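Table 4 source record.
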Amino acid sequence: MQGPAWQHTINHLGTASVITLAGELDFAADGDVRQLLDAELQQPSLTDLRIDMTRVTFIDSTMLGTLVHAYNAIDDTDRQLTISPSPVVRRILEITGLSHLFNVADVDPPDAPGRAS
């Protein structure tokens, strides 16, 4: 039996949460990813939600809807939502016109100058 086509990790850094997603994010993953995002958004101390999608290889319209759902949950608050997209995700966000909704930021590579190890 084959495992899921996607993986995730969650790291809490003070008042920030970093959700790292990898693999194929489609209809099959949507419910689980939405639950992950909703659980983090319910943390009262959360001020910054970062979604690292640099290892995402595929994203479909249901997952775009989930990202918009997270944006709408944060929009009228003092919280911030930042997405670090893979080239595939960046292209889809740009094609659909959704890139303007999110703070889109690149993740520094592990060997970038000045990055702490």
